[in-house]
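Suppose you are handed a protein chain with no further information: no name, no annotation, nothing but its sequence. What can you learn? This example shows the usual starting point.
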Amino acid sequence: MSEAARIDDPATGDPEAKRKVVNRLKRAQGQLAAVISAVEEDASCRDVVHQLAAVSKALDRAGFLVISTALRECLTDPDGDMAPEELEKLFLSLA
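A reasonable first move is to predict its three-dimensional structure. Written in structure tokens, the prediction is:
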């Protein structure tokens, strides 16, 4: 991971944002485990799709939180390593 992409850089990062991202990713991990179990146990299509939607939403929220943290850092340190164009590309990759 590049220096510009760090979430918890002591000089500019946000440890609270890192905690939130990790929590969201752990939630997604648990939801993915539930999807796998549901498929293995021949759960209904409806149940599997609901679980998949939850996993997708949790991952999206984690990604947007990472990008919003980078945007805040970019605003506070405009001379940082990450160009606005790169942030825009990252944001659009999640859309």
